[in-house]
Amino acid sequence: MVEANNTTVTLQVHRFTPRPERAERARGGSPFAKKSSPFGGGSDSAARRRPRGKQWVQEYTIPARPSDTVLDCLLTIKRTIDPTLAFRYSCGHGMCGSDAAAINGTPTLLCTATVRDWAKQPSTAPEVDDEGFRRTGDETANEPDAPAENIENNIPEGSLGVIELASLPGFPPQRDLIADIDPMLNQIRKLTPYLQADGVLATTAEGKVDVFEYLQNPEQLAKYETLSNCIACGVCEGACPVYAGGDAFVGPAALIWASRFINDSRDTKAMDRMDAIDTADGVAGCQSVRACSRHCPRGIDVGEEMWQIVAKVRER
Ligand code: SF4
Ligand code: FES
Predict the structure, then answer these.
(1) pLDDT by residue (tens digit) across 94-130?
(2) Which is more confidently placed, 147 or 87?
């Protein structure tokens, strides 16, 4: 069914423009400042790397259909209203993980989130509930059956509602909706995220590389197949209250990658891999909050997998 396009959506975008690096910072910064900083840990320390700059919220109202994705809306804004708006994407259909951001405060992918699911009408409820607790965005977000009619006069007729966007939590913002996910990628890299198997790479009589097979049965494959779907989007890290993009906890994504190879029957380094994560900032850092499970776009029950790998490391 073709949807009529006489509706609009309003995007409230938390924008950020970094301040240009001063000359002395570009040369490596003051040695005195580094020594006296209580946060002066490793090179990935989020506190040290959090950039300074101009922050503001910008509102865009554009024509949109309920089935449009948030990425569609951002592309419309970029092409027709504001070419300076920065966001990152690649595949456009949930495969590359490059466009993770916070929608209404929840980490998720821009390309799979639809206006229908995320646009919210302004609430007429008070800011605090009956017991005096401040209401969270989660209580009003994701109400798929939200009434089409506007409930407040300040929303124009035909509006599908408002969507609030910010860069992925837990990571330093680079510009607008683009977060610096290097801390996560470095943590994954440290845990050697590739197969280390026995086998001698043979060559043919002509000197070409010979192919050799690593046989596996379906049960062996099932142990890590779901884990191998991780696209390193960082959504689980953005949801984790312990992960802070720094050195205190390697984060759920890095542990998922470690677990993927620990559970692979072809890999010969399972013990080394478990040693590498049996640290204060490894499995011991996981507090089993399980917020990481809620929005994984690849359907991985991250919290459950964390639980399994913690048990496996302890039982060794
Ligand atoms: S486990 Fe899921 S949420 Fe976490 S990085 Fe991988 S794909 Fe993204
Ligand atoms: S653009 Fe590739 S996952 Fe969204």
Answers:
(1) 999 999 999 999 999 999 999 999 999 876 555 556 6
(2) 87
Three-state secondary structure string covering 168-204: CCCCCEEECCEECCHHHHHHHHHCCCCCCCCCCCCEC
pLDDT at 37: 40
- State if residue 300 touches ligand 1 by the CB under 6 angstroms criterion: yes
User: 296: Cβ below 6 Å to ligand 1?
Assistant: yes
**Spans of all domains in the chain:** 8-175, 181-315
CA-based nearest residue to 190, from 142, 255, 240: 255
Answer whether CATH 3.10.20.30 is correct for domain 8-175: yes
**pLDDT of amino acid 26:** 52
With a cut of 50, say whether residue 35 has pLDDT above it: no
* Ligand 1 atom nearest to 232, measured from its CA: 5
Which of 15-24, 38-47, 63-72, 209-218 has the largest mean confidence? 63-72
The closest ligand to the CA of 298 turns out to be 1
Over residues 35-56, mean pLDDT = 59
| CATH label, 181-315, candidates 1.10.1060.10, 3.40.720.10, 1.10.240.10, 1.10.20.10 | 1.10.1060.10
Pairing of strands 159-167, 8-18: parallel
> What is the number of other CB atoms lying within 10 angstroms of the CB of residue 163?
22
Instruction: Please write the tens of the pLDDT for every residue from 223-246.
Output: 999 999 999 999 999 999 999 776
Residue 184 Cβ < 6 Å to ligand 1: no
